[in-house]
Hints:
By secondary structure, the protein is α/β, with parallel strands linked by helices. It is 30% helix and 21% strand.
Amino acid sequence: MTTAKLTVSVRMYNVGFGDAFLVTVRKGRKAWRMIVDCGVHAQGQARPLEDSVNAIVDDLRAVDPAGPPHVNVIAATHHHADHIAGFALDAWQQVAVEEIWVPFVEDPMDPDAKALRESHRNAVARLLGLIGQRTHGLNRGAWPAALITAQWFAVNCSRNEKATDRLLDRNDLGFATKPRIRFLPSAGSDDQILPTTIEDVTVHVLGPPRDPAFLKHMDPPAQAGWLALDQDAEPGSGSEQPLFSPGFVMTADDCQRDFPQLAQAHQSLRQLARINDAGLLAAASLLERAVNNTSLFFVLDVAGLHLLFPGDAQYGSWNHVLSNPALLPLVSDATFYKIGHHGSHNGTPRNYVENILGEGAYAMLPWGLVKRWEDTIPKQELLDALRARNHHIVRADNPLAEHGRVTVQGDLWAEVTFTAGSKGADH
């Protein structure tokens, strides 16, 4: 009797500066499918977002033309627009979805999550108000570049309400079926293991961490980053306290006792009106990093093949994983790595690439040109470090088929396929 072959494919859609992935695991006639994110930066689109969404839905429909398009899981890693904006579009109403996975910070019944959302929401409102004061009466074409970027960061950190409503099945938005919504990871779990419909295939949810000691790290220390910060750097020396901290909002006394950095951040916010344009950009950038650190961080385990999806996790969430010896085996031998945060300096720890991640993996880079970041994202030093470890980089903007493992569909998507029992490019 022949055992059915177990394969996993990761399809990266070329949306531009954003993430959209379709993961398909097959064993004989069985298949399990997961969508990881669907969004794009408004200034970095490879094509209209509606076209990208329709392409994804059409690919789901092609599996069974007689029935509605179907997917087992949609994983929305965090609420930035370049990761979830596509879910605002009505094409999703025709898709049958079994489960939605979102980070615990979206849980309306979780008091810690509620406090964190309120902290982000208040900061966004304050920043947009201050930017509005600075630009009052100015034609947008006359805005300083720093304020244009600061406004984008602040808007990107907003709740992206229509997409979030659909993902959370509220306000008459949803999918063709009513999905089960999971807020991940569960409290007290460093490695929450979720089964799939296929034997020997599980998902390890490693983050975001719930411990504020990890979440407060919104940017790597100098020795862990990819060179120095560029235009999004915090002004002044690296020893200055950050303007924002993603600790939990409490009463003023409790906050001062348990989270003095957050208390100081609120004090700094009240002084932001006197900070120059670069200061507002730094504040918006810090808030952007805080939201990135709430990303779902998970490993798909296909009979021992480990496929790593860190969302846009930054230093705090990565440190939570890399400092835990029990979790290291899941990320050290990754067959596949979704390059975090579009290859920016703070999306992948240097230590992970140079000392922890083994050789010969496939790394997918979801990227599209945003003019302001064309010289800094992706970070060339990161790409060079990956290649030095014999990793194969598949870019969304210029995918190349190599070794028969990568399939390319024009400029629409690139897909890499692995068979359980083999690892790397040469097996």
